[in-house]
Write a structure and sequence with these properties.
This protein is of the alpha+beta class. About 50% of the residues lie in helices and about 10% in strands. The strands form four sheets. It has a nine-stranded mixed β-sheet with strand order 3-7-8-14-13-12-9-11-10, sandwiched between helices. Helix 12 runs antiparallel to helix 15 and helix 15 crosses helix 22. The N terminus and C terminus are likely disordered.
Length: about 725
């Protein structure tokens, strides 16, 4: 039965949601503390918590915060390890998913909180957010239950497992609670929905409290209970006698968890009686929502997490990365390959400052100008970090009065972009540009060919180079009825077609940029045209689209340029990688002729991996005579992502290059050291060889027989030969 969303009902719903919001927020803090204690109780490894802003969107911000909080609490602990060498008996998944599960809960709490702040929201809006919170609470409860059971398996205090089982906390109770919440949501009974989710929250809170208690008993349970018994004193003739206890070597806990453990120990010592069940119940009440002492615990945990000293965990700024030796080896190899290709085409290396005068960069990048990093210069000049390498190159040519120059430049650029997958704020570009007067389309052909040569040399796999002409695109826009003043901004919209559907781009052109629906639809008929260059060009020249374009002078010139270029690419045998695509726009303002963009067609989705085009007016914009130019820029960071992915998928056996050995499974698949020597997986035991291979970190089965080129050598003889060596 539906609920009246009138004034009083809405007010009541809002107040209930506020309480749910506050309680859930507190649970986030307690859950992190309990998880940290469980990590120490299980002697877990912390490799799953080595999360940083991945820039590519693969790691959520809240996951990173949770991982950081756990590491802050465990800072200095001798019970956890920071590598993959934790206790093999531990269910790693129970700990590795802590950042994700707890991070998702934090996100759901923040989402509900943001809705509550806007009082005018409808019940439907609250209902969706509350139900989302309910599902994340269930996930947290199930994850915490797994660690409770792990803790119970390690605790040395008899009887505690039975006390836990009496509480009847299990996955079924969580699922039933969520089912009732879903039913209330379907009936649009939002008051009942909030009530059901609040009940789920109560169950989850109790599970998390049990996680903290069981972890505490694993860490300190036996000792603290013995201490409580030992400190019973007996008065004998006015003398107080206390039983002495043996000193036990203290285990060093984390700086944060040690504070939490001490608070729990103090609460145990204050409890009345020493019966286990009473102690457990008092600890559960200490961690209960209704406990007057809970605020003190919450405050202490928050103080630890927010303290400057604890927060000294270094990290890189958003959109930037460190590169370890393995990554640097790949980068060094890639840069070497690229440099050789550039120098083979007689280009000269050039370096320019990392920052330029702001006026040098302003007005060159269209809508992307907002991404330029401005510097707070103290010398009186307005400066900005370079956005690309093309504008500094043009400034250099103009400033030095050059009329022809073929150069390459490999260096970092900076963009104040929103970091996402394959998109960074600091990254390398590898540019090749030709400035000067040459035969028609000669330089354009060379830079497209160089891009193809570089990608082939890097051996990244299959790719395509989409190609278009800015004058052809301008002709299309004019034919479709777009005012010339809107050419560049509409080009920026069209440039998004590789990421968005045409309907989404059309909506932007109509609603945000003022085009009519008819004009946008007409643009759509052109930008959907793509195909093999020579075939498609011939089709356009002979079709209805071509008749319109040939009446437009700029479009006619563009089609002529493309005809020359495609013929040259065909003769050089690299046209098979090129696609004629009328949707390609390239958002930068300075392009005037041929434009192109390379895209990887393999499994790794990284977007554009290279682009470029002709810019005949850019150099002249610096107040000197016009010098035509064309260039290409390789998106090296995305290319390196592909190369790193390939490297991770291949087993590298360089360490064994001196060993005449290889490995194969029963099907004969060779993992590769030497093609003439193999270890084949048969049922003959070789402990010595297994030990030898373990030393070199090769994970393969323990039973082998040795194949030499022409015959089989008995395994014992092979081991003797190894020992003799």
């Amino acid at each position: 039965m539906g609920v009246n969303q009138g004034g009083s009902a809405m007010s009541s719903l809002l107040e209930t949601c506020k309480l749910l919001d506050q309680t859930s927020s507190a649970l986030c803090t307690i859950a992190v503390a309990a998880a940290a204690l469980s990590c120490e109780a299980a002697r877990a490894n912390l490799s799953a918590f080595d999360l940083t802003d991945s820039v590519d969107g693969s790691v959520a911000k809240d996951d990173i915060v949770v991982a950081s909080d756990i590491k802050v609490l465990l800072n200095g602990s001798k019970l956890v390890v920071s590598s993959n060498k934790g206790d093999d008996k531990v269910d790693v998944n129970s700990f590795s998913k802590i950042p994700l599960v707890n991070g998702n809960l934090r996100e759901a709490v923040k989402s509900l909180h943001s809705v509550i702040r806007v009082v005018a929201n409808s019940g439907e809006k609250f209902g969706g957010k509350v139900l989302h919170l309910g599902f994340e609470l269930r996930n947290l409860g199930e994850c915490s239950l797994e660690r409770v059971r792990l803790n119970l398996g390690s605790v040395r205090v008899e009887g505690i497992k039975g006390i836990f089982e009496n509480d009847c906390l299990n996955e079924e109770s969580l699922r039933n609670g969520i089912q009732l919440a879903v039913e209330a949501g379907l009936e649009k009974d939002y008051v009942r929905l909030v009530k059901e989710v609040d009940l789920v929250l109560g169950i989850v809170w109790k599970i998390v409290a049990w996680e903290a208690v069981t972890a505490f008993f694993v860490l300190e349970g036996v000792e603290i209970l013995n201490k409580k018994s030992v400190e019973k004193v007996e008065v004998d003739g006015g003398n107080v006698k206390a039983e002495k206890k043996k000193k036990k070597k203290k285990v060093l806990l984390g700086k944060g968890t040690s504070v939490i453990v001490e608070m729990i120990k103090d609460r145990v010592m204050m409890s009345k009686g020493d019966e286990l069940e009473k102690v457990v119940k008092e600890l559960l009440f200490f961690l209960d929502l209704k406990s007057p002492e809970l605020d003190g615990l919450l405050g202490k945990v928050k103080e630890i997490l927010e303290s400057n000293e604890s927060r000294r965990i270094p990290k890189t700024p958003k959109g930037t990365r460190d590169f370890a030796k393995e990554q640097m080896a790949i980068r060094k190899k890639a840069f070497s390959i690229i440099t050789k290709v550039f120098e083979r085409h007689c280009a000269t290396a050039l370096d320019t400052p990392a920052f330029e005068l702001k006026e040098t960069l302003t007005g060159k990048y269209g809508e992307d100008s907002k991404l330029i990093y401005d510097l707070a210069d103290q010398g009186g000049e307005l400066c900005s970090l370079r956005y690309d390498l093309t504008v500094p190159f043009s400034r250099y040519v103009a400033m030095n009065g050059l009329t022809s120059f073929k150069r390459y430049h490999i260096d970092k650029v900076w963009r104040r972009d929103n970091p996402s997958k394959g998109r960074y704020r600091e990254f390398y570009q590898c540019d090749f540009d030709i400035a000067g007067q040459y035969e028609k389309m000669g330089p354009d052909f060379e830079v497209v060919r160089i891009l193809s040569e570089v990608l082939d040399a890097l051996n990244i796999g299959d790719y395509e180079i989409k190609l278009n002409h800015r004058k052809l695109l301008d002709g299309v826009l004019e034919i479709c009825g777009v005012p010339p003043a809107k050419f560049r901004t509409i080009c920026s919209s069209i440039d998004k077609l590789d990421k968005l559907s045409f309907e989404q781009v059309k909506k932007e052109m109509v609603e945000e940029k003022g085009l009519s629906v008819e004009t946008a639809d007409k643009i759509g008929t052109f930008v959907k045209i793509r195909g093999p260059p020579l075939e498609l060009l011939s089709k356009i020249m002979g079709g209805s689209e071509g008749s319109e374009l040939l009446k437009h002078n700029a479009s006619k010139d563009a089609l002529g340029d493309l005809s020359v270029l495609f013929e040259a690419l065909a003769k050089s045998r690299c046209i098979d990688k090129v696609v004629f695509d009328l949707s390609l726009a390239r958002g930068l303002d300075y392009y005037t002729g041929v434009i192109f963009e390379a895209a990887f067609k393999g499994g790794v989705q990284v977007g554009s991996i290279g682009a470029g085009g002709r810019y005949d007016n850019l150099i002249g914009n610096f107040g000197t005579k016009q010098v035509p130019a064309v260039g290409m820029s390789l998106g090296i960071e995305r290319v390196l992502t592909i190369m790193e992915e390939k490297a991770q998928n291949q087993v590298t056996w360089d360490l064994f290059s001196t060993w005449p050995l290889g490995f194969s499974d029963n099907s004969g698949f060779h993992l590769g050291l030497s093609s003439s020597y193999c270890l084949s997986l048969f049922a003959i035991s070789c402990p010595f060889l297994n030990f030898l291979l373990d030393e070199f970190l090769i994970l393969i089965p323990y039973k082998f027989i040795v194949w030499w080129p022409q015959f089989v050598i008995p395994l014992e003889l092979f081991v003797m030969l190894l020992k003799a060596e």
